[in-house]
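We now fix the convention by which a protein and its fold are recorded. The integers have meaning only within a learned vocabulary of local backbone shapes. A record is reproduced here so that you can trace the correspondence yourselves:
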Amino acid sequence: MLDLAFSDGMTSLRVIEDQINRFLASNVPEVIVIRGSWGSGKTYAWNKFLKTAICEKRVKLSYYSYVSLFGLDLLADLKLATLVKSEHISSVAGKISKLDRVKKLGKKSLPYLADNADFLRLKVSANQMTDVLRIKETIICLDDFERTQLDTQALMGFISELKEERRCKVVLIVNDEKFDCDAKKKYETFREKVVDREFEFSPNPEECTEIVFDNEDSNKLLMEKCHNLGITNIRIIKKIQTLESEIRPFLQNCEEETVDKALSDLVLFTYSLYIKSGDFPDHEFILEMSEYDLQSYLDDDGNLLSDKSEQKNQQKAKWKRWLDMLANYGYWATDTLDSEIAQSVKRGYFCEEDIVREIRNYDKGAEARSQAIPVNEAWALFHGSLENNQDEIIEKMVEACRASIQTIETSALGEAILILRKLGAEIDADELITLAISERGDKEFFNMSHCNHRSGHLDQKMWQEFQSFYAQSCRQKTPLEILKRIANEDSLAQLDEEPILGSLSADDFYSLFKSLRGDELDACIRAALRCGMLENADDTQKRILQHASEAVKRIGSESNLNKLRMDKFNIAD
């Protein structure tokens, strides 16, 4: 048995491909083993090389049978599966119709019919069928070898029979990391007698992407990003390929920066979700980048890299490694487009309305961002060393925020202002708030209820001033409009609505309620009362409840009829 060692002059993938091509081009009975780790693409590569060889007419034998050993516990079942799944080699590459397949196989069309016409219902044993139809001179692939429940000695005996008596060529595909100890020992006992060649399949990241992707310009960015992260799991790369085909239509006519960002995110978040390794940043860590950012470099008092417990130091060291990986990948902080792509990867599909909105919003600012000094460069200076360069960091951060004030996201500005304030640059932080309010034209930039933020990691002064500015810039809603919204949406008053309702006296509520008719009357009274019924209601909410209740009581006191009408609101006298 030959255990192939790869020469320095060839890559593992090329060696495996050459050996498989040699195997397929010969009619000499032979057993080969392809072993490797889970997800490395053993089966995918075998199928790809087989189909290529068939299309190029380089396969010597005429029949092929693929069987997964997973779940099989009887040798008779394996014999039956091998027989039933036998097909003409041309059908593997999709080059023959169902009718032509039956005509071409003649008597041997029985396995095909068995798979398509309830032939298995016949009470004929697997051994009897094998004796009649005689599987021979067939390429047989037995996959998931390590997951079989068959007796290893009996299985290896059957494989030997296929090779020696039926003149078959057999390929075994094995995840040797998951091999049961007893089964592995038995396999090793018999492999010298049965196995002719054994190959370790361990392609590098470049080879893995080559297996999955066509070498076209549209795939180059995905391949580059997979290489950057060192992805060698074919199953994850296939997931990336599938998701890319689904997001690609939404990226039509977008700026190159937007396309690059979306596809880069797709690779990163797919890998982080499925790799399940402590050596790589997990999904939630990346989504909460700003939170981990600050905790990694600042203590609770805002001091850089203070001494903490050993456990916290280890956690901080891990976060530092993860941040370095993400920085090397070109990822610095999570914005709303990043978040939407991450959530889409997690749920397995894209919500068209949400992803289109985020792509368009990001794409609108792509050209402007390219002309501004990136805030990322300032963060790179912050993360890039442990030197005592605080003044330089402050200068670069302020310069970057000023230059990008028209395009920077609210959360990104808030994080920058917070770090400036913690570094003692209070005046610079306040000036950036003032600059944004005076220069930024889009009103929604100041709507903090829609800000993609992490609690406690945005500057609170900026939060308050932006929310106040947003409330002033909006058309003041009438109390009736607010109550109708609360009734229709079944939600309480928003931050900018509470002061309006809180300013109403009991007389104001009385006049408002008396003016209503129909369904609006009941709905608006309930909406007003609900605002102050929270267990932890603040002073404004309590005032709304008090004044609305007084108005209800007053209406009920006007007549016996109105009292009956108001009783349903359960306002105690």
